[in-house]
Specification:
The chain is mainly β. The chain has two helices and 31 strands. A hairpin with a 3-residue loop joins strand 25 and strand 26.
């Protein structure tokens, strides 16, 4: 699961890697389009747009295809403006919206702190700030009431430049913060993109440019125990936890992020992995409500969006036809970017109808039956940011 603090897919493609969240440069931090989705999306680039929210049920319906399921309906929108800037990695779990940001505008838009907004109380809290003198938040994701993120030591000026990193987790109910993992002393040119769910954190430890693979580790949030889940996995970086399974991308070739990536599912407590996707080139995973979704490039068009219920004997189906991807699954609905770079809501059904989110949305996060988004105010964009949340109804 962002588009002004993007997930650095360009850097990974340049290295032919997919083992982790990626290396970062100033351009990639300010870009949009992450290689993986776990309830968080990057921020969309471009000038500020109007932040006027839509009213109850006013998500604009449309039918890019002859869909069977009705388009989801957006409920009453609640919006607020906060004195934070350089927002990235918007993510959501339960009643909390998490994100990386700064109290003051950073020249390179590198967010240095982690915040959470409690939708029940309206309280905005700064949970943590980078421990590196020149560090910043490279990735954030949320699940089951926890927020996880990667702290990167310095902005990379070359794709192969090793950096130090640390993976952190916060219990949003108590604001307790724990350090989950740290990089090797020599650092790594690729930083992990951790995911959280089922009481555990999963992340990649990239093994180097020559090996072009990663070890996948699991941290138990209850006991503090770490264990190796998979050794030398080619692919890896795209992950999600759902229905007590780790869903991940696997490249059967010796090179990472080649077009033949598969979607795989493996029980977190042990057992054999199984292939979920029927076709190759599966990227940008998202999972929720017992289902998984991904993107597949198609001839003459950026991506089609696929989904699978993960039930025994289930088969993948087309969720959305031509699109720009960035799929985010929630309970019974999903969000994605259409070919005009607009966020849409769609029911998790084959070829369902869709509806538009407000045009001001720059980054979208979903959890349960709610959707949240970030907007850039017309005035004061260097000092303030706007956040909105609404309930989504599917019919």
């Amino acid at each position: 699961m962002a588009r002004l603090g993007g997930r650095l897919g360009a850097g990974l493609a340049a290295l032919a890697l997919a083992g982790s969240a990626g290396c970062s440069s100033a351009a990639s931090i300010a870009g949009h389009h992450p290689p993986a989705s776990t309830g968080s999306t990057p921020t969309r680039a471009g000038p500020p747009r109007s932040t006027e929210p839509a009213g109850p049920g006013t998500a604009t319906p449309s039918s890019p295809g002859a869909g069977r399921a009705a388009a989801p309906v957006l409920g009453a929108v609640r919006s607020r403006t906060e004195a934070v800037t350089d927002v990235a990695w918007l993510t959501m779990t339960g009643r909390w919206v998490g994100f990386a940001a700064n109290a003051r505008h950073h020249p390179e838009r590198l967010p240095r702190s982690i915040y959470d907004l409690d939708l029940a109380t309206g309280r905005l809290s700064r949970l943590w700030t980078t421990e590196y003198p020149h560090g910043f938040v490279q990735w954030a994701s949320a699940g089951d009431g926890w927020l996880v993120w990667t702290d990167q030591s310095v902005l990379q000026h070359a794709m192969t430049q090793p950096v130090q990193w640390a993976v952190w987790a916060a219990d949003l109910a108590t604001d307790r913060v724990v350090r989950v993992a740290v990089s090797r002393p020599a650092g790594s040119p690729v930083t992990p993109g951790p995911v959280v769910g089922d009481g555990r954190v999963v992340w990649d430890d990239y093994l180097g440019l020559r090996v072009r693979a990663a070890d996948v580790w699991v941290y138990n949030l209850r006991t503090g125990a770490r264990r190796l889940l998979m050794h030398r996995i080619a692919g890896g970086g795209q992950k999600a936890i759902v229905a007590h399974q780790l869903v991940y991308a696997l490249s059967p070739s010796a090179y990472l992020r080649k077009p033949e990536d598969w979607v795989m599912a493996r029980p977190l407590d042990g057992g054999l992995a199984r292939k979920v996707s029927r076709d190759s080139a599966a990227i940008d995973l998202s999972a929720a409500d017992g289902a998984v979704g991904w993107q597949e490039p198609i001839t003459g068009d950026p991506k089609r969006l696929m989904a699978d219920s993960l039930r025994p004997g289930s088969t993948p189906y087309r969720l959305v036809g031509p699109s720009l991807g960035h799929l985010e699954l929630a309970d019974g609905f999903a969000t994605y970017l259409d070919r005009q770079d607009r966020y849409r809501l769609v029911a998790v059904e084959p070829d369902a109808r869709s509806s538009l989110l407000p045009e001001s949305a720059r980054s979208v996060a979903v959890s349960g039956h709610r959707v949240a988004w970030f907007s850039i105010p017309q005035q004061g964009w260097r000092t303030h940011s706007s956040f909105s949340v609404a309930t989504v109804t599917t019919r």
